[in-house]
Amino acid sequence: MTARPGPTVFVVDDYAPVRSAISRLLRAAGFAVAPFASAEEFLAQYDPQKVGCLVLDLAMPSLNGLELQHVLAKAGSLLPIIFLTGHGDIPKGVQAMKRGASDFLTKPVNDEDLLAAVRVAIEKDRALRREQAELSEIRARLATLTPREREVLEYVVAGKLNKQIAGDLGTVEQTVKVHRAHVMEKMRVRSVAELVRLTQRCGISAR
Amino acid sequence: MSWITIVWSMNAAACLTLAAIYLVVWCKQRQVLAHLIFSITAVAAAAIAGFELAMMHAGTVGQYEALIRWIHVPVWVLTVAFVAFVRLYLHAGRPWLAWSICGLRTLVLILNFILTPNLNFQRITSLRHFSWWGGEMISVPFGVASRWGLLSSVSLLLRLIFFVDATIVVWRRGDRRRALVLGGSMIFGAILAWHVPLVIWGIIDVPFFLCFAYSGIVAAMGYELSYDLLHAAQLARQLQASETDLRETQERMELAANAAELGMWMWDIVRDEIWITDKGRALFGFAPLEKVDFNRFRNTLHPQDLESVVQAVANSLRTGEEYESEYRAVLPDGQVRWIAGRGQVEFNGDGQPARMRGVAVDITKRKQAEEQAARHRNEMAHLARVFTLGELSGSLAHELSLPLTAILSNAQAAQRVLAHGGADLAEVQEILNEIVSEDKRAGEVIRRLRLWLKKGEVRQHSLRINEVVEDVLKLIHSDLVNQHVTVDIELARTLPTVTGDPIQLQQVLLNLVVNACDAMADCNTQERRLLIRTGIENGNGAVIVSVIDGGGSIPEEKMEQIFESFFTTKEQGMGLGLSVCRTIIAAHRGKLWATNNADRGATFHFSLPIRKSDGRQS
Questions:
Q1: What is the dihedral of CA B101, B102, B103, B106, to 10 degrees?
Q2: Which of A16, B287, B302, B577 would disulfide-bridge B328, Cβ 3.0–4.6 Å?
Q3: What is this model's ipTM?
Q4: Which of B416, B434, B484 sits opposite A21 (nearest CB)?
C-alpha cells in the first residue's frame, strides 16, 4: 500500500446504514475514509503506517469495540480511537477512556462533535508520530556514543562540573573535556540545557 | 206361550242385543270393520230365528213356501258375513274358497227367487202338525225336494271346508284359543246346518233350528270381540297409568331442571315450532304464551355470536353430532345474558332431522368471572411487559439510535455536500433514499414498542409461531449482541397455525430468552449459545417452542417453584416473569414447563393447541 499524504479515518461499524452515513459525512468534510463492517476486517487490512484515527462502534457481534481497542494496544498501536455507542453506556465509556480512547460519543452524533473529535484525534496521531520519530532519532544518536561517553553524558545532565566528573571517573579534566565535546557533537546539541531535554525524553536518568 | 216360542225369541233377542251393542261400538271405532260384520251377522242370525219361528207356526203351505224363500236372504247375509269375518278378523281361509262360497250362495239366492216355490222344494204337498217340546203344535213341511237344493248343500260343504282350513291355519299360527273357540264353533255350526237338507229330504222329522247353529257362532264371535275390547280397555288403563307416570317424571324433571336453572326445549324441525319450559322462556325473554320458532330464537342472539350458533346448529343437523355452543342472548330490555346450549338431534325414518331436544343454562356469572380473570391476567401481563421493557430500554434505545444516527449523519453530509456547491445529484438521491428507509426502520421500532405497551383488549388471532419467534429476535437483537449471546434457530418449516394474542406470546418467548441470557451471564462468551426450536409435540400434535440455553441447571426441587409468583434468583427481578408466562400460556390452553438438558443448561418449553380444521403453514 502506498502511503497517502493526507490522514485517513477508519470507520468500523457492523450496521451498514450508519457506516455509510458516517463515512459520507467524513468524506464531505474532506477526510479520506476507510469503512470496515467488522473489527476482524479492519485488523486484516489495517496499515499502521497510515496517519489518521479510528471511529469505532462499541457494540458489535463477535469482536466488539473494547476488544479491538485491547488488541490494538497489545500490538503497540497508538492509533487514536473515537468510540461511538448506541446508548450512553457509562461504565463501558469510562473503561474505554481509561484505556486511552481519544473520545467517546453517543449515537446519534452531531457532525460538529464528530468532526471536532476526528480533528483532535488526527492531530494527536500526528503529534504522537512526530514524537515517536524524534525519540527514535534521539535513540539513534545515543546509540553512537561509546560507553565512556555515555557515562560522561549522565554526569553532565546531572549538572556536574568537568572537575567533579574527572574526580568521580578517576581521570583528568582534559579527557573529560574531550569526551564531553564528542557527546555534544554526536547528540547534535549546542547547549547542556538542550542535552538535558533530549535525555529526559528518552527517560535517561542523571547520575 | 210355549217353550219353543220363548227359546227362539230369546235367541233372536240375544242376537239383536249383541248386534246393537257392536253397532254402537263400531260407530265409535269405525276402523275396526270386524265389529260391523259381527253386528250384521248377529242381525242375520236373529232374522233366521224369527223366520224359523214363523215357519213352525205357518198355517198354510203357501205361507211356508214364502217363508222358505225369504229365509234365504238372511242366510246369504250370514254366509257372506262369516266368510268376511274369517278373512278380515282371523286373517285366514283360502281366498278362492271364500269367493266360491260367496258366488255359489249368491247363485243360490238368485235361483231361489226364480224357481217356484223356492230352491229347496219342487213343491210342498202338505204341512204336518205335531206337538213338540211341551205340547206346542208346530208345522213341518212335507213335499218333493228340488234338485237345485244340492247347490245349497254344496255351498254348505264348501263352507265347512273353508272353516276347517281356516281353523287349522289359526291353530298352527299358535293362536289356539281362537282356533278352538271361533273355529270350533264355526265347524260345529256348519255341521249342525246339515239338518236342513235332511229335513227337506224327509229323512228326519224336526223343525229347522238353524238359528242355534248360527247363534253359537255369533256367541263365539261376540266372546272373541269382547275379549279384544277388554284387552284394549286394559291396555288403555295401562297407557293411562304410564302416562300419569310420565307426567310425574316430567314434572320431577322440570322441578330438577328449574332447580338447576336449566331451560329445556324441544324444536320440531319439520313444523319449525319450539316448545320450551317456563324457565327457558325466562332465560331468553320470551313471553309466557308467545309462539317460538327458530327465527324467534335467532333474533335473540347477540350479533357477534349469531353466526357461530347457526353454524353449530347446522353442523349438528348435518352430522347428528351433539349441538353445543356458548353464546350471548340479548333480552328485550337490552340486558345481555350468557347462555350455554346443548342439544341432540333426532332423525325420522328417512334419516331427515325431525326434532332437536336440549337444554339451555345461564352461564353469565361464570362468564363474568372468566372475563374478570382474563382482565386481571391481561393487566398482569401488561405490567410485566412494562417491566420487561424497563430491562430492555437500553437495547430499545440502541435500536432507535441506529436509524437516527444514519438519518442525522446522512442529512448533515448532504448539507455539507450542498454547501460546497457542485453537488452530485446522484449522491444526494442516494442519501435521501437511505434517510427514508432508515426513518421507516425507526418507525417500525416505535410501532413494535407501541404494540408492546398497548393495554387493550386481547384479540385472538390465527398466527404462525415462527413469526412470533422472528419478532422476538428483532426486539431483543441488540441485547443479544451486547451480551455476546449467539442465537441459533431451528424453525420447523411446516407448522399448523395456533390461536392466540401475538403480543402476549411474544412476551412469553421474550421472557424465556431474557432468562436464558441471564442464566448464561457467567459463561465464557464462546459458550453463550442459545437455541430456539419450533416443532410439533408428539402425540397431541400441538405446536411446541423450546428455548435451550447452555447455562446452569435448575435444581429438581425448584422445577415447579420457578413458576410461582415472587420467586426469583435475580437481584433486580420481581419474580413475576415466569408466573405471568404460565398464566398467559394457560389462557391459551397450552402448557409451559422446564427440563434440564443432558449436558448443560436448561430448556423451557411451551406448547399450544393447534386450531381445529387447520391447513398447514407453508
A1: 120
A2: B302
A3: 0.78
A4: B434
